[in-house]
Amino acid sequence: MTDLSQNTHNTSASPHDEQVLLQLTGLKKTYDQTEVLKDINLDIKHGEFLTLLGPSGCGKTTLLRLIAGFEQPNAGAIYLDGIQMAGLPADKRPVNTVFQQYALFPHMSVAQNVAYGLKLKKVPKDEIQRRVSEMLAMVQLEHLANRKPQDLSGGQQQRVAIARAVINRPKLLLLDEPLSALDHKLRLQMQSELKRLQRELGITFVFVTHDQEEALSMSDRIAVMKDGTFQQIGTPIEIYETPANLFTAKFIGETNLFRAEVKGVYPDQPDRDGKVTNGRIEVEVCEAQAQEGPTTLRNLRRPNFANDVQVGDIVNLLLRPEDLRIYDPKDNEHSGLLGRVIESNYKGSTLDSIIELANGHIIKASEFFDEDDPSFDYKLNEGVKVSWVDGWEWVLPEDSETVPDITVQKDGS
Amino acid sequence: MARNHLGSKSPFRTATLWLIWGWLLIFALLPNILVIAVSFLTRDSSAFISLPVSIDSYVRMIDPLYFEVFVHSLWMAGITTIICLLLGYPFAWLVSRVKVRWQPLLMLLLILPFWTNSLVRTYALKLLFANNGLINKLLLAIGVIDTPIDILYTQGAVIAGLTYLLFPFMVLPLYAVFTDLRNDMLLASQDLGATRTQTFWHVVLPLTTPGIISGVLLVLLPAMGMFYVADILGGSRNLLVGNIIKNQFLDARDWPFGAAASVLLTLAMAVLLLAYRASSRRIGKTDFNEVA
């Protein structure tokens, strides 16, 4: 622990993009004997937009409240710029929060709401006035300065809430599902506005949401949570393309899962030049085993857990709908899984099909619409053959529902 | 809203409106007009009231004899209100912060005394306060005092009685504003750097002011009118405005003067109501719920 604090003390001397602003180590929180947070460890860098993503009850809001200081952890440390925050109340932390319901003071005008934090700090009146009008200009609300918050629209209230928090120049801005009360269109607009504000202000954001699309489109990094633990921490691309476990895979985006039996394991081989060729595994998809006729083995990239995989084991192959290819069942060039189309939805740029495989397994495929092919569509119950390009799959061990395997991220820190 | 559901010309809507207006007219407006009218008439020994119109009754209220009663009455009611507020405010706050399933029980305990007639409860207080009452016996037994102290027929007894009877009326509106007070308001204030004391003055107090005013409204004016409390516990020196009104109507048979005293109470009520409206408009209570 002492090591950690010294380390962060050094880094805080010269703030730099890659340096750690907030460091959580071994955080635990228990309510009535229920462990809401179990051993949370996380580093957040200066200027980062980090999203805590997870279903309701996963502990993301509790974690935010611990960082804000509304609750104190049962164990663990919270270092902000190298200074221990655990134990300090919220009013003593250089951290501000945007609340889910905004929590604007109804008895104060918009300007008074925004000025509140500065007034408490006894900032001179003329400076308060200057900074408030600056802030209101930034969120484009100068013209509403004297209104009461309850006379404003949801989106405007949202911006007042952000202005009221940000004017205090916090080292860290916490946002608790701030967009969930807005309608879809306004939400998209506020997403890009939040990104703009974050860029302009250079403040580190910790954003809580249960909306995976929101998380993917806004964040520098996402921490996926379930049952009080991190399932995976990584960039949106890492989280989407290389989920650490089945929970993350299913929670983020749409996923098709195929079970497959391992038929061969080939480790990494250094070739003559000393370069390492990636190892491979050979699998037989279980769905294909049920089909008549010869089955083809699939030759896949060797997954990072391959050391624990033996011939005869079952692995999960994970394929996003856009990774699947659909062929004519009579097409003999491609091997694949036979099925029939039970639903087909034209989405403009894509054609989304729901396909029932021979064994009843239902999968979803999403193909780019081919303008040159006027007959590009499926009839209901039309037989199809489903396949993918080897190497586009992502392989997970059979039982990885709860195993938090964060080794996937290539985080050097 | 009603237009959407019922249609502006639906017979039900028309009937309901007539009923409400009729009720208010006959049972609220008319009696008040009568009282005001009577207050400007002259006393008559056989018919109670007679012409000519005069403002004598109001002029008489400046008479030191009555003026003193008014001031003393306002003083006792004021002290009662302050005690009720000082006890009721933290009480209402605590009740609103306990687990939701306990709150109905606590509020039931608060209004349970209403099930016993307040006159009976006032007599019960008399038994407690008397020279050979429970309180004196207890104090004698512990040896705090050698001779019984005078509790009954003092100003303190009247104030205690009024506080006891009116305390729930202070708590109920306060409880209502405290349950409306969203916890994230307090968190937001703390988050922006406010200590607990600062949050109280800048956020909690302004947001609960409507409750304070309506509590004061429900305690102060009734306190000045509860003549039987003064009769039973106060003796002859601790009179309330209510005693004057009652005496003028029942004993002195001076209806105009009694009516004038009553009008004065109503006016005081109106002033407080206006203050209440102003404060709840200030925190935008009316349209706040629509947005949230």
Give structural attributes.
heterodimer, A: alpha+beta, Rossmann fold, 10 helices, 24% helix, B: mainly alpha, MetI-like fold, two-stranded antiparallel sheet, 14 helices, 2% strand, disordered C terminus
Could you describe the 3D structure shown?
The complex is a heterodimer of chains A (413) and B (292). Chain A has 413 residues and is of the alpha+beta class. Chain A has a domain at 2-251: 3-Layer(aba) Sandwich (Rossmann fold), CATH 3.40.50. Chain A contains ten helices and 22 strands. In chain A, a hairpin with a 4-residue loop joins strand 19 (350-357) and strand 20. In chain A, helix 3 (110-120) packs across helix 4. Chain A is elongated. Chain B is mostly helical and 292 residues long. Chain B has a single domain, classed as MetI-like fold, CATH 1.10.3720. Chain B contains 14 helices and two strands. Chain B has a two-stranded antiparallel ribbon. In chain B, helix 8 packs across helix 11, helix 9 packs across helix 10 (196-225) and helix 10 (196-225) packs antiparallel against helix 13 (255-282). In chain B, 30% of the residues are buried. Classes of the chains: A alpha+beta (413), B mainly alpha (292). At the A-B interface, strand 6, helix 3 and helix 5 of A face helix 9, helix 10 and helix 14 of B.
N→C terminal distance of chain B? 19 Å
CATH class term of chain B: Mainly Alpha
Q: Find the structural class of chain B using helix and strand composition.
A: mainly alpha
Distance between the termini of chain A: 17 Å
Average pLDDT of chain A: 83
Q: What is the tally of beta strands of chain A?
A: 22
Note the beta-strand portion of chain A: 25-35%
Order of helices and strands of chain B: HHEEHHHHHHHHHHHH
- Assembly type of the chains comes to heterodimer
Q: What fold name goes in the CATH topology slot of chain B?
A: MetI-like fold
CATH topology grouping of the domain at 2-251 in chain A:
Rossmann fold
Q: Mind summarizing the main beta sheet of chain B?
A: 2 strands, antiparallel
Number of contiguous helices of chain B: 14
Low-confidence stretches of chain A: 1-17, 402-413
Label the CATH architecture of chain B: Orthogonal Bundle
Alpha-beta classification of chain A = alpha+beta
Number of helices, where a helix is a run of at least 4 consecutive DSSP H or I residues of chain A: 10
- Number of structural domains of chain B: 1
> How are the strands of the largest sheet of chain B arranged?
1-2
